[in-house]
């Protein structure tokens, strides 16, 4: 028997679509899709995510390999296998599955980010596998540049940016890289100046944040779509990682929420309240997947003095 299920693909945070004019193009990389899957596939897949969440990597890999037999061309299975093998420190196998996932979905940011993580842990430069991936894809190059920036690999990010044409992403990311390099390759610690009230009324980021805060407070079902669109268009704004992660957790996808929230931590500056909110949400998400150790770890990070 088959039935409809929600299966979370790599988020494809349009990490690299900074102008709102490109938002529609990213709908093709939707975070969720409906498809027909057998009960056996569903059971194996979600049990695998559970086992990975409690650090039982061997069991998670076995279950994902069963999913691979049932759905040989499913890129999300390749992606999850790459992550599971990475956590199990089987880097060669992790690399092969990560490459397979990226070939299937070259515009997915998380697939690109995962592959770079695997290569970095092996001390392997991207150039060694560049011919095996669709490197000519413009979106893939943008994703790689942002992923390198996130990992504070600024020279690698700049090298890729030089291969891209002029765009808002290239300009803004280049400025952030230069600023980080000037400050000893550390992200700037000085918070942005507070906007005047009249400026806030026309600032799209401030408007989005206000809208999302209302949706969060009201537990509105529209939060997921609004938060995703905000992150698509402003991928260096940590608040939107928090909002999207919270929305994912509320919609029952705690594993993906953890991935988004932990990625957002890389962009935090001096906003301790936001850090507390993200730690609290991560604690809830890890609790939901049964990993009490990580849940307590994030709970202990919360600054109760605020």
Q: Notable features of this structure?
A:
single chain; 306 residues; mainly alpha; Serine Threonine Protein Phosphatase 5, Tetratricopeptide repeat; 2 domains; two-stranded antiparallel sheet; 15 helices; 2 strands; 61% helix; 5% strand; disordered N terminus
**What is the general shape?**
globular
Radius of gyration: 19 Å
Number of domains: 2
The CATH homology group name of the largest domain: Tetratricopeptide repeat domain
Helix-strand pattern: EEHHHHHHHHHHHHHHH
CATH architect. name of the largest domain? Alpha Horseshoe
Instruction: Give the N-to-C terminal Cα separation.
Output: 53 Å
Question: Explain this structure to me?
Answer:
It contains 15 helices and two strands. The chain has 306 residues and is mainly alpha-helical. The protein has two domains: 2-137, Alpha Horseshoe (Serine Threonine Protein Phosphatase 5, Tetratricopeptide repeat), CATH 1.25.40.10; 197-300, Alpha Horseshoe (Serine Threonine Protein Phosphatase 5, Tetratricopeptide repeat), CATH 1.25.40. The longest helix has 17 residues, at 272-288. It is globular and about 50 Å long.
How are the elements arranged and paired?
Layout: E1 2-8, E2 32-38, H1 39-53, H2 57-70, H3 75-87, H4 91-104, H5 109-122, H6 138-150, H7 154-161, H8 168-182, H9 197-200, H10 204-218, H11 223-233, H12 238-250, H13 254-264, H14 272-288, H15 292-301
Helix pairs in contact: 1-2, 2-3, 3-4, 3-5, 4-5, 5-6, 6-7, 6-8, 7-8, 10-11, 10-12, 11-12, 12-13, 12-14, 13-14, 14-15
């Amino acid at each position: 028997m088959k039935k409809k299920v929600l299966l979370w693909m790599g988020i494809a945070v349009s990490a690299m679509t900074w102008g709102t004019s490109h938002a529609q193009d990213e709908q093709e990389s939707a975070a969720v899709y409906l498809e027909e899957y057998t009960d056996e596939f569903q059971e194996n897949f979600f049990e695998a995510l559970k086992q990975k969440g409690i650090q039982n990597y061997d069991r998670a890999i076995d279950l994902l390999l069963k999913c691979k037999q049932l759905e040989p061309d499913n890129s999300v299975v390749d992606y999850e296998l790459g992550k599971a093998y990475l956590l199990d420190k089987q880097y060669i196998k992790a690399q092969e599955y990560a490459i397979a996932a990226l070939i299937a979905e070259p515009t997915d940011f998380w697939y690109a980010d995962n592959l770079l993580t695997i290569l970095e842990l092996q001390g392997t430069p991207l150039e060694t596998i560049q011919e095996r991936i669709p490197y000519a894809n413009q979106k893939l190059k943008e994703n790689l540049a942002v992923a390198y920036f996130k990992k504070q690999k600024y020279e690698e990010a700049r090298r890729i940016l030089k291969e891209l044409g002029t765009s808002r992403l290239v300009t803004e990311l280049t400025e952030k890289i230069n600023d980080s390099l000037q400050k000893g390759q550390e992200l700037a610690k000085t918070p942005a100046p507070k906007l005047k009230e009249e400026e806030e009324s026309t600032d799209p980021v401030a408007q989005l944040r206000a809208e999302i805060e209302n949706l969060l407070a009201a537990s509105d079902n529209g939060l997921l779509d609004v938060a995703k669109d905000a992150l698509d268009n402003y991928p260096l704004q940590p608040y939107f990682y928090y909002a999207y992660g919270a929305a994912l957790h509320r919609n029952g996808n705690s594993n993906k929420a953890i991935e988004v929230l932990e990625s957002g931590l890389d962009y935090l500056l001096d906003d301790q309240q936001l850090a507390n909110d993200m730690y609290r949400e991560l604690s809830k998400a890890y609790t939901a997947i049964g990993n009490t150790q990580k849940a307590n770890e994030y709970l202990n990070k919360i600054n109760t003095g605020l």
